Amino acid sequence: MKKITTMKKIVIILIVLVLILSVFALISGNSNSSREIQSVPISNNIVSDSQEVVEERKTRIEEKAKEALSFCETNDCNTDFCILIDMKIHSGKYRMFVYDFKDQKVERKALVTHGSGKDDKKSTGAEPLFGNEEGSLLTSLGKYTIGDSAYSRWGINVHYKLHGLDTSNSNAFKRIIVLHSYTPVPSYEIYPRHLPMGWSWGCPVTDDRTMAWLDSKLRDVKKPVLLWIYY
Fold this sequence. Notes:
alpha+beta, 2 domains
């Protein structure tokens, strides 16, 4: 009887220890999740643009879209939609626009990074620099066609090759400049904060939700889609 009682005590002690360890693991897991959430830049003081700024931005997008459509018609590109990226806009605001040619409107907008640069040619959040040199880590201005998709280490693990069409971005494919996502990029505006430097070495990098949406859209296209980065 004494042996049975002793065994029962050991079993009870082991069960208690397992429960304690399980509770500790649960608390630790929640703590790590909180740190991940807090690592995303969040601004509690979102500043709205004036009506004048909103109208100017809309006009600029519409003008670029008209030029983009003309280019696509002339160069046998997709005439359903294009992607416009306006690097004059603050990096904490939406500045990547998926424009629907048929409905003549912005179908989706998102944050997008610019290249960090290096050495004596470094971008800041407020002032992007641009370049086409290999190893510059800078964004290249100009028109691109979006090519094949492939595996990516970042974000949703999909990227799309970019082929530069201008002298200002002619080295894009050689530089492995691709359209992809990076999980820390928020899917909402963070103005007046800027997106951190170092999240892009020249690639247009957006948030995971937008990239997943783009991936589903780009998979079905029959002709190359235009992506235009301008300033």
